[in-house]
Amino acid sequence: MEQRMVDFISGLRAAGVRVSIAESSDAFRAVKQVGVGNRDTFRSALRTTLVKEASDLPMFDQLFKLYFASSERPLIRPQEHLTPEQRAMLAAALRALLSQMQQDQMQGEKQPRDGRQSPGQDGQLGQLLQLLRHLLSGQALSDEILEQAGQQARLPLASHPSQQPWLTRRMLQAMGWEELAEVLEQLWEELARAGMGQEAIEELQRMIQANQEALSEQVGQYAGMSIARQMTKQRPRRNGPELMQRPFRDLSQAEADELRTQVRRLAARLRSRAALRQKRTNSGFLDAKRTIRANQRYGGVPLDLRYKHRHLKPKLALICDVSTSVRHCAEFMLRLIYELQDQVAKARSFAFISDIEEISQDFADNQPEVAVDQVLARMPAGFYNTNLGYSLDTFCHDYLDAVDRRTTVILLGDGRNNFNDPRLDLLQSIKRRARRIIWLNPESAPLWGTGDSDALEYLPLCDAIYEVGNLAQLTEAVDRLLTSR
């Protein structure tokens, strides 16, 4: 417990909560007096000695849940509650279910349109059977299974307690949790065909449901403790220039608010840089045809040079993923682009999660900060429902007039498509109409193409792709796309 408290205090410091050595000593003395038997009393002792400001209380509560999670819920052993005859029926139903699942797999009934392997095939079949075995035997998940699911969900990259619910869901998804409901439904049907009574089936369902909840809690606690350990290794957070370098996914609410106040100043700086570049190129560039015509009287000797002066502001079509994993990045990009409207000939904006809608009117009617809040409120974030392929289908059907030969299409998203068809053909159609396609990806490059990411498949269709995991990178990317012609 002492080491857990040391790690907890380190986690608080890493999250920006100021805890002195004296206050740490006070916490240990307080816990020695009250003990750890009563969770509420223990929590109050730590809160009283370690937290000095009300603004730090939410972070304390989040971290306390991670470091001092309640004990795991015990699992039920359903087969111990069955009669020998019912156990035989269950074994026969499981054999029939396995045979059916293997047959479905061989027939390719779950093969996706793009030909890739989906979670319901090959390795996922084994994961589903493994999950089912744990539920029926009442065994907790092994560390090996949890570690594998954590790697698939990118748990090692997590560094903030607010990410725990999202990563828990991703781990469950990687383990086949969503497909499990269909498998269990098939199992109940097989049991009914085997002759098991409805009352016995319902009792088995209640036990399996209880075990599902217990395993879900186990995954959540594993995710929480992993985040806690990673936070302990971080340097304490400070505001200032370092805040521009902090990943969007790690920002606290206070830090996000601080960065929002910086956006207008960043836009002013970018506007000044663009104006300076334009001034430096005011001399134009050589117009060969006009120069030749103007110098016919000199026998074609170019004594009188003629120049072209052209400064075309770009037209933009912004297609932004506003799902949970990239919402902060989309928010800051929209704010930044619309603060720079005088540098853009025309901008039409679209937001998508499972489908796409145009949000240009929100920015035409409101200030950027109001419009962003309005859009994000209208499109509540969800989990595992991102579908860029379907959104591109809607875009090509309803909004393709937003793209012409002068338009730069900016796609913002992590390319995670939940194993849906990425519809590369549609992006190719957009590319044929557009001047160029720029992809802004808030994920780090080593993660592109892992798990359900289609980023590497979209990459050959893009003229450029930039990593924009923090505000500094995003500002640099916006500067490039506004100044390159």
Name some characteristics of this structure.
alpha/beta, single chain, 20 helices, 8% strand, flat, 56% helix, Rossmann fold, two-stranded antiparallel ribbon, 485 residues, six-stranded mixed sheet, 3 domains, 8 strands
Structure description:
- With 485 residues, the chain is α/β, with parallel strands linked by helices.
- It has three domains: 2-68; 78-109 and 117-232, no CATH class; 248-252 and 314-483, 3-Layer(aba) Sandwich (Rossmann fold).
- Helix content is 56%, strand content 8%.
- The chain contains 20 helices and eight strands.
- It has helices at residues 2-14, 21-34, 39-50, 57-67, 84-107, 123-137, 143-152, 164-174, 177-194, 198-232, 241-245, 253-280, 288-294, 327-339, 360-365, 368-378, 388-398, 424-433, 455-458, 471-483; strands at residues 285-286, 307-308, 315-321, 346-352, 356-358, 407-412, 436-441, 464-467.
- The strands form two sheets. A six-stranded mixed beta sheet has the order 5-4-3-6-7-8, with helices on both faces. The chain has a two-stranded antiparallel sheet with strand order 1-2.
- Helix 18 links the parallel strand 6 (407-412) and strand 7 (436-441).
- Helix 12 (253-280) packs parallel to helix 20.
- The protein is flat and about 110 Å long.
- The termini are far apart.
